[in-house]
Structure formats: structure tokens, C-alpha cells
Model the fold of this input.
Amino acid sequence: MPESSHLLTSTTDPLSQGIVAVTLVLLFLLLTLEKAHRVLVALGAVSLLWGITYLTPYHLISFEGAARALDLNVLLLLASMMAVVGVLKSTGVFGWAVARLVHRAGNSPARIMILIAWFTAIASAFLDNVTTVIFVTPIALGLAAQLGVAPMAFIMPMIMAANIGGTATLIGDPPNIMIGSGAGLSFGDFLMHLSAPVLVMMVALQLLATRWFRAELTGTTPRSIGDPAAADSDATIVDPTLLRGMGWICAFILVGFLTHGVTGMPAAVPATIGAAAALILQDRLYVRKHHASGEERVHGILGIIEHEIEWPTLVFFAFLFIVVGAGVETGLIATLAGSLAAAIDAGRSSFALGPEGTLLFAALLILWAAAGLSALIDNIPFVAVSIPILHELIPTLPAGADVVWWALALGACLGGNATPIGASANVTTLDLAARRQVRISFREFCHFAIPTTLITLVISSAWLTGMIFFDYHAALYASLAIAALLGVVAKVRPA
Done:
């Protein structure tokens, strides 16, 4: 392993680094406590850094440095996909799809639970997982009530599936978008390296959930679910023409993602083009159908832009990039990377590890540390800080060190499953359930979530081990074989 001591020296004075470090700690703490809106917290942190920079002798980050720290690819990709999803939502396709799936399951609670989980996972891989649970949660709760099933039996596997499925792709979870942009990884890279372990995790989740909730799923008298739309009044296609057009637009976006390596387009480019096409298509169809005036047309477009694009989230990301930029400019990130490199070097020396063993030690350390921290704090700021640290760390590791990016993605996305506050999808689902008088306590959530999280992290550890010590394709085929085997074992007969 190359010498890493050069990373232990800061580029600026230790006091400047200490100020930024304290700011980051306070940022994490306030975000975890949720005593103030996260945008306000991030804005306060940036204001503090700028105040110190321009009013004291200590240079933390300049206005120009802040502009350089902004990741336009992440911001545009998030905004564009939010707009695309918003237009898709207006067609009613999400509720319709779930309702049709559960209708095919008949009156079997076990089958319905499995279908809801798998639909949520697949949808979360290609949409925002928060958007997915917003649509699926009311349907799941309605079906649970109609079938006389405890809501937890549907809700808990659904939440786990949302975060697991979102791990598989570049756009499935915001941390992945940030990692992809920061590390130069494409949509295809994520599919190639993470889809197989996610498949295994979903099969494991199916197996665990059907056994964990066996009493709830089999201890009730089956009732007819009737019309598939009965669980949710919005479970119908309201604009088939718009949906067909959106199918072509989504196909274009997906092709743009998959051909990133050939065209050189950042992921934000096809997403932005697709969002523009979606808004134009929706506008033209609305005018044709309603003979709308210019004012009404603008209002319709603004409905998507104002309500479907989560501007507070984008502003939060922007301020967060600036805070992390201060860590880079002051040398704090290099210092943290040096400390991590020193810990890995100590592990290599203590256990007499070779190059592959050193890589595995580093990957597992990052995986489990990221998972533990993501269960307790917001994984978005954690990943934002981690990306530049890994950039500094990778040159100190043996060849093939890019595997640590996958360790970070797996840990950050899966660790959020462990607690109710670990991921936005968790918070959103529990809030929606509470509005319908279904309350899941912190203890009840963790009782199922922690074992699930540990299982997914063990699978992730095995996958990373295979990636490091064996040929990738061999690991891929083995993973798929394991998934198929678990699928046979976990097969559930109608209740």
C-alpha cells in the first residue's frame, strides 16, 4: 500500500479546519434533531462560513469557491426527474399499476404483500423512492383494511423494498446521484455493479417478510378485494394519450443514461431534455382538450414546476455542496482522508493483508461505517462529505480501489432502512400512515428493520468480497444463481 502520510498535512491552518469541522458536526446534529427545517440549517451553516471568511482573518470558502463547489449535474438531474415524475403522476399510472398487480394476486395477503414489495422496489429503481411510497402507501393501507390484515405486514416490507430498490440505479436514491456525479459513474455502471446484489436482497426480504409476518398474513379470514381501484380512488389512467407520449420520453431518457459512456453526456442532459419534452407534451394536450387560454396554460405548467419539483430539497443540496466545499478548501477533507488511510494501513499491518485483503478491509470499513451513520443521520450530507474523502483515499489504495464507491453506495442507501429517521422514504411512509390512524412506533419499526438491514449488509459484504477476489462475471452469475435458489425456497402458496 502506498505511503499515506502526505495526506495527514493540511493545506491551511488547523484552526480553519477545526471551524469547518465544528460547523459540519453542528449541521449533522441539527439535521438529526429536526428542530429546524433542513434548508434553514444549511443556510445558517453557509452564512456562518461566509461571515467568518469575509469578516475575520480566516479563509474558509469564498463566494467564487462556493460557485465552484456546486454540482450542476446533480441539481439539474434531480429537478428534471422530479418534473418527469410529476407529469407521469398526472396520468394516474402509478396507482393503476399497483391496483392491477394486487388484483391479480386474488385474495391472498401473502401474495399481495410480495407484489407490493417488488413493485415498490422496481419503481424506486427508476423513480424517486419517496414518490413511489407516496402512491403505494395509501393503496397498501386500503388493501390491509379490506383484507383484515395488520397494516405493518404490508407497510414494513414496502419501506424496506423502497430503499433496497433505490440502491440499484443511478437515479434510485439521491446519494447514488451524488456518488455517480462525483465519481464519474454512469447509469450502466450502477446497473452492472448493484442490480445483482439488490435482486438477492429483495429475494431475502421476501423470504424474511413472509416468515416474520406469517401470523398476520395467514391468521385472517380472506375477504374479496373486489375492484382493483377500490383501495384507492385515483387508481385509474386519466390521460392515456399523455401516458403513451411519456413512454417514448422515458425510453429516450433511459437510452441517454445507458449510452453515457459513448456520448459523453452527463446524466442531467437527457433528463433535462426529457423534462422539457414532457412539459411541452402535457401543455399541448391540455390546450387541445380544454381550449385553454394563455394564462391557464402557464398555470398548468407552473403546477408541475411549483408543486412537483421539490425546490427546498434542491436548495438544501446547493447549500450542502458549499459547506463541503469549505472542507475541501481548508484541507479538512484531506486530513479526514489521511486519517481513514492511516486506519486502513493499520488494519493491513495488523492482519498482514495483501492487496486484495487491504481493498476488502477498506470496502467493508466504508460499507458498515456508512450504514451505521446513515441509520442515525441524514445520508445525503454524509455522502456529500464522504465523496471528496474517497477521492483523496483512492490513490493510497491498491489497484481496483473504485470498489469503495460501491461500498459507499450500498452502506448509505441500505443503512437508512434501520431506523424510522434513516431515510426520507421511511419518514414519508410513517407520516402517511399516521394520517390514516396507523401508527408504527420506533421500537416496532426497528424490530423488523434492523434484522432486514443486517441481512442486506451481509449480502453486500459477500458481494464486495466476490468483486475483489473473483472475476466480476463469476460473482454476477453466482449472485443470480443464489437469487434463483432463494426464490424457490421463499415461494409462498396462496393463503
